[in-house]
Specification:
Largest sheet: 10 strands, mixed
Shape: elongated
CATH topology of the largest domain: Rossmann fold
Number of strands: 23
Number of domains: 2
Strand content: 25-35%
Distance between the termini: 45 Å
Helix content: 25-40%
CATH superfamily of the largest domain: P-loop containing nucleotide triphosphate hydrolases
Radius of gyration: 23 Å
């Protein structure tokens, strides 16, 4: 722990575009450093669950999200310094290309995050079928914004020693940036799963083998000592303004993460298994800090809801890959519906929304879900909603006051096939994003609120308090 001297060693791993291999590189570096005895705190720039799950698995601790669209800048800083203080080095994986953002100023880009935290960048370069041109691309990134501190590059998908020599010589000569690693093209026997960013860790028993393989790649092909040296040099440049980043009136570096300020008032169930797995750790921490005991539940394996649960949070995931098992667990889904009719609080996101519906239709097969909401969902081959969202709450519901604006993100292939009743209403207007249907989102029924938008508790603090409040009211009524 480094709160005694306020050092914040860290690096940002970015690329020229998505699909360049930065996820495997980040996982490998984290796992290799952990194997070497270092405590690493992983972070993910961007609204991502799958990459974050792999990063957290590699580090052996949660991966936290840093995103200036979902969170304001003081909150991003507060989160980083609080969690970075618990470890010896921080690794932030960026998203998309280094300068890709939502406008011409690069707002929400990985470059913006690196400057915000005064951390250096390591560029992961997909060198497939290119040599000297890669030096021009790196030089362009270096000069595009001189305030972005690019301290090294890793060559990825290198065809051989000659290819590496040409790349290394040109980049170091023309750009003045060291090459700190060179990873060859990987074959199936070198690495068991090359598409880690597309596969949730919970769904495969080989996850640990993949982590170990990524660590070995980093040990064999990355100059880890130089990576650590770059991170340590950055620590001297990081001068956090503790007054500005303090949100609670206490220095975040002195926060005792094992101490809970409140007694546990209610029990909140969290659906967590291979069907439902997309949760920001900050959301779960927010519920705990707001006064709830978290109880993990599996609608795949548990036969019924625990009797002493006062409300549930159902995150996203892939219920469609487990539709048969979810449908066959009749006792559980019918029991949850009976609770909902009695005013049991449920907050559901994306995959959770689908589970709240009546049916899932997959390749002409129909699978019964809970039936809490009178909606039948189907699936498309292309994303039906993808990207950041801004929603305006414009109707009464049990969680958010009308007039509230919420920032989040959506990513889903499902769509509404049939809406069987007009007795449930949408309570969100989509100012940005797709939503459920007709630029509307947020289906409210009794104490149930289900939406395609994933929100972040640090960006929407009222969310955790609202779920706890509903749970307390339900507890009093039953």
């Amino acid at each position: 722990m480094r709160s005694d001297n306020h050092d914040f060693p860290g690096i940002v791993i970015s690329a020229l575009r998505g699909g360049s291999g930065k996820t495997i590189l980040s996982i490998g570096i984290i796992a290799a450093l952990k194997d070497g005895g270092k405590k690493v705190t992983p972070f993910k720039k961007g609204p991502d669950y799958i990459d974050a799950g792999w990063l957290g698995l590699a580090a052996g601790q949660p991966c936290y999200n840093l995103d200036t669209f979902l969170l304001d800048i003081p909150t991003v800083k507060h989160s980083f310094y609080t969690h970075a203080a618990q470890s010896e080095i921080s690794i932030i994986e960026g998203n998309r290309g280094l300068y890709d953002g939502i406008d011409t100023e690069g707002t929400t880009s990985t470059a913006e995050t690196s400057k915000l935290l005064s951390l250096p960048v390591i560029l992961c370069l997909d060198c497939t079928k290119t040599t000297r041109t890669m030096a021009a691309a790196v030089l362009g990134c270096k000069n595009f914004d001189p305030e972005v501190d690019i301290k090294g590059v890793v060559l990825n998908r290198v065809a051989g020693s000659r290819h590496e020599t040409i790349l290394r010589t040109n980049i170091e000569y023309h750009c003045g940036i060291p090459v700190v690693g060179s990873v060859p093209k990987l074959r199936s026997h070198d690495f068991p799963e090359r598409h880690m960013g597309l596969v949730p860790t919970h769904e495969h028993e080989w996850a640990t083998n993949s982590i170990n393989a990524a660590a070995q790649i980093a040990k064999n092909h990355i100059d880890l000592d130089t990576i650590v040296q770059i991170a340590n040099q950055a620590a001297a440049k990081v001068k956090p303004d503790l007054h500005q980043i303090t949100l609670s009136g206490k220095l975040p570096l002195l926060k005792n993460k094992n101490k809970t300020s409140r007694s546990k008032q209610v029990k909140i169930g969290i659906f967590r298994d291979s069907a439902f797995q997309f949760y920001y750790p900050e959301n779960l921490e927010a519920l705990s800090e707001a006064g709830s005991e978290l109880v993990y539940i599996s609608p795949l394996e548990d036969q019924r809801m625990p009797e002493d649960i006062d409300g549930v949070y159902v995150g996203g995931g892939f219920p469609e890959t487990h539709a048969r098992e979810l449908s066959q667990n009749v006792t559980f889904r019918e029991g949850l519906k009976a609770l909902a009719e009695k005013g049991f609080p449920i907050y559901a996101e994306c995959g959770g929304l689908m589970y709240m519906g009546k049916k899932l239709i997959l390749e002409d097969e129909s699978y019964d879900m809970t039936g809490i909401l009178p909606i039948i969902f189907g699936f498309s081959k292309k994303p039906q909603g993808h990207g950041y969202t801004i929603i305006a709450v414009d109707k009464e519901n049990p969680f958010f006051k009308p007039g509230t604006e919420i920032r989040g993100h959506e990513f889903r292939y499902s769509r509404v096939i049939e809406w069987e009743s007009a007795n449930v209403n949408t309570v969100f207007e989509m100012k940005r994003g797709t939503g459920i249907q007709g630029k509307r989102d947020g289906i409210s029924y009794k104490r149930v609120l289900a939406t395609y938008t994933h929100l972040h508790a640090l960006g929407t603090p009222v969310w955790a308090e609202s779920l706890i409040k509903n749970a307390i009211n339900y507890q009093k009524e039953r």
